[in-house]
Q: What sequence folds into this?
């Protein structure tokens, strides 16, 4: 950490960024707020509705269900991707020609457009002509993600693990390669077990990057939309309708802009709140 | 753990885990490629592991039909514009955050990050109204500006990390040597954080390239993104899986090229410069 000097004119450096981001963030946000508190029948005529939409959304079973599914999805993928990512990063070679090969191949899913990820998994998992679906059915497992909610969930989670575990791997790997060789030698002299090395040397050194990984994975999984709408479309039924999909169904499908806007604000607020807690914890760690 | 000094002596089981993981990553990609070389008849006719009637028809259609290949060109155009804008705007801001304390700096930094957390589904409709109102709907610049919402905060975050790793003495020495601030910034400071700029550009490229909801919402004809083109195919031309697979396979290429260029910085870059 370098010591910073106080200089108010540094604001001039950040004004362009503030202006550009505010343009993109505040104006759309105000539109959402407008719709959330008012009723409109077009022609820019608005009637004040107060908290009606919020009460309606917060009391609806539909929102509760989508929210619960979202929490379940995010928890499952975090519980799989974080330990798996650490395990893979630990077993990767640190030097030599294989490092680049591993990194490039692993980073590949991260750069595939999200609708293509959804389409790719769709044709991969189709029960009659997809490699995964066909193979599973061929060995006697009854699998059809377009009709069975459980299969749809498994496919969705597999897709997310496929898509994003590499992010955790790359971050954890970056943390691991920053550990000086001397630490390991000292541990060897002390006769430390592999578990002790992991617990006392590797894990503490990875703490920062893992916080970033969890933060990014949390934010992105809470916003998942494109991949899922292409893969399952929220179905079968409503079984994989997570928050974003439910929101778009409400706003564009039924054109219930009031409730949709209220739901947007609640949704955004939840993400903000959880991220704020993460962020505060992260900054606290950094200052120590 | 020490054995990693001698690369040849890595125990086999340690290579096995990454190998299995990479195999898992490659399977769906293989299937996409395999589908893209099949004819529609073969795809609908049943399961086959390798393409039986190997065909390039799907690719030929994409490269000869302007609505298809323009989709790629449009997407690449707004991605490049966005990357340039994001990094250029983020550089001075990141410098201010890494070097100075000023009124509300921490709140401002968090506010910037909150925009990275805004679900695009929340903003899709208001974005459409906003860009239609200022007559930028269906232009490359509209998508490029809209993607700034999450790319600028990310670029500031990454660059700030790299800049904080550069000792402040560098700035002070340059002033003593009589450098003006802009000259110092361009001639000395930017080369010092070159890898950070590369990494920030990589991330901006990545998130702008993969984001499809806003780009689809903000374009219709003139600047139609590849996502919109693919969706149209999926709905109007029946279910031409081979064509869709070929289009999908082609979207992997720009990403693969970019990764190849930054492969040596990836590990450091993902740690945002300050492990």
A:
């Amino acid at each position: 950490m370098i010591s910073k000097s106080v200089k108010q004119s540094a604001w001039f450096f950040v004004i362009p960024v503030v202006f550009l981001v505010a343009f993109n963030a505040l104006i759309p946000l105000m539109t959402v707020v407008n719709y959330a508190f008012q009723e409109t029948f077009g022609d820019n005529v608005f009637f004040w509705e107060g908290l009606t939409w919020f009460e309606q959304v917060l009391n609806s079973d539909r929102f509760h269900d989508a929210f619960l599914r979202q929490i379940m999805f995010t928890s499952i993928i975090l519980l799989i991707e974080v330990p798996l990512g650490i395990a893979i990063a630990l077993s990767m070679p640190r030097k030599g020609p294989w490092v680049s090969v591993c990194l490039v191949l692993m980073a590949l899913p991260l750069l595939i457009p999200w609708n293509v990820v959804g389409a790719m998994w769709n044709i991969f998992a189709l029960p009659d002509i997809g490699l995964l679906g066909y193979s599973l059915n061929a060995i006697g497992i009854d699998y059809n993600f377009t009709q069975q909610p459980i299969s749809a969930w498994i496919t969705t989670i597999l897709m997310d693990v496929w898509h994003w575990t590499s992010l955790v791997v790359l971050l954890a790997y970056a943390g691991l390669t920053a550990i000086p060789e001397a630490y390991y030698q000292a541990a060897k002299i002390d006769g430390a077990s592999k578990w002790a090395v992991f617990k006392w040397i590797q894990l503490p050194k990875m703490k920062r990057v893992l916080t970033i990984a969890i933060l990014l994975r949390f934010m992105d999984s809470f916003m998942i939309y494109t991949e899922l709408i292409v893969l399952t479309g929220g179905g079968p039924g409503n079984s994989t309708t997570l928050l974003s999909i439910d929101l778009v169904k409400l706003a564009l499908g039924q054109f219930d802009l009031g409730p949709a806007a209220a739901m947007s604000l609640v949704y955004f607020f939840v993400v903000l709140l959880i991220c704020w807690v993460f962020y505060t914890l992260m900054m606290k760690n950094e200052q120590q | 753990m020490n054995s990693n000094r001698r690369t040849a002596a890595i125990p086999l089981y340690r290579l096995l885990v990454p190998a299995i993981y990479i195999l898992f990553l490659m399977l769906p990609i293989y299937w996409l490629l395999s589908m893209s070389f099949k004819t529609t008849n073969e795809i609908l006719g049943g399961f086959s592991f390798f393409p039986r009637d190997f065909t390039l028809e799907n690719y030929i259609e994409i490269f000869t039909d302007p609505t298809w290949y323009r989709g790629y060109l449009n997407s690449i155009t707004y991605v490049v514009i966005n990357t340039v804008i994001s990094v250029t705007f983020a550089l001075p801001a990141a410098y201010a955050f890494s070097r100075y304390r000023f009124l509300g700096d921490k709140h401002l930094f968090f506010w910037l990050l909150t925009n990275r957390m805004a679900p695009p589904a929340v903003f899709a409709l208001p974005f459409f109204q906003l860009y239609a109102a200022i007559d930028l709907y269906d232009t490359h610049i509209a998508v490029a500006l809209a993607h700034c919402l999450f790319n600028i905060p990310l670029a500031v975050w990454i660059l700030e990390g790299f800049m904080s790793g550069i000792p402040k003495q560098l700035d002070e020495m340059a002033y003593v040597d009589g450098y003006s601030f802009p000259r110092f910034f361009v001639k000395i400071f930017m080369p010092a954080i070159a890898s950070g700029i590369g990494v920030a550009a990589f991330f901006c490229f990545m998130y702008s390239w993969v984001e499809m909801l806003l780009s689809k919402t903000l374009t219709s004809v003139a600047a139609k993104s590849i996502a919109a083109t693919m969706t149209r195919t999926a709905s109007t031309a029946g279910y031409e899986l081979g064509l869709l697979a070929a289009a999908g396979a082609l979207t992997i290429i720009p990403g693969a090229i970019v990764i190849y260029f930054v492969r040596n910085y990836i590990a450091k870059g993902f740690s945002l410069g300050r492990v």
Notes: Chain A is about 75% helix and 5% strand.
